[in-house]
Amino acid sequence: MTAAATVMAGVAVGTFAVTANGASRPAVADRQARPTIVLEHGAFADGSSWNGVIERLHADGYSVVAAADPLRGPHSDAVALRRVLDHVKGPKILVGHSYGGSVISQAAAKDPLVKALVYVAAFLPAPGESALGLTNKYPGSTLPDALEPVPYTDADGTTGTDLYIKQDKFRHQFAADVPADQAALMAATQRPIAEAALEEKATGAAWRNKPTWDIVTTQDLDIPAAVQRFMARRAHAHTMEVAASHSVAVSHPRLVADVIEKAARATR
């Protein structure tokens, strides 16, 4: 095939372009058609928990935003996430890990630009349900014994209790399949969640009217697999089970990215 014919073939296909070093990459039109992936972390974590997933999504041509979750309560955290969603133009896929699932369920309600939801070892509460109530629906969570409560007083005088995972129990409880040195960093940088956030009842459930995917972690010591399966079935989610800890986005970033991309492709 001549050089001119090669160029014309590429135009006709319209999916890939060739870079200076000969590698293929998504063409401009294809990249622009893709939804932005918005990631919401959960309790005892921060945006860096998505780093491995983000690297793979970027390599596959997706734009990504990892939102900072205040971890104060589903309603106020959903308001914070809405500010991020309003800033991101065009269609979006919303992904939540753990408690972040409660937040995306509320933030995505009545938003036509959120095309799909992906739950990663996460809560899918119905209105009137709380993360704590769902966790206790089936036995298996050992999280209560690993927690360290720390009372706080805000500048306005409001009092409450923050919850941390004890650092010497963090890996076993939260990240058993993550290398020890990496889990130690995660333990040191964990962000606490307000105890009240786990007790606050949901008021929205976007999974009721949006395409939903769910990754169920069968070795999870935070949210028992039986609880995750119950929520996934109720939401009629496209479900994948994996033998992983609660920190599946850290231990299996390619798998998590693949499920997100499936959701993105299915809604284009």
UniProtKB/TrEMBL annotation:
One Pfam family hit: Abhydrolase_6
Every AB hydrolase-1 domain range: 37-259
Keywords for this protein: Hydrolase
Organism, scientific name: Streptomyces diastatochromogenes
Molecular-function GO terms, alphabetical: hydrolase activity
SUPFAM superfamilies: alpha/beta-Hydrolases
Keyword check for Hydrolase: yes
Protein name (record): Alpha/beta hydrolase
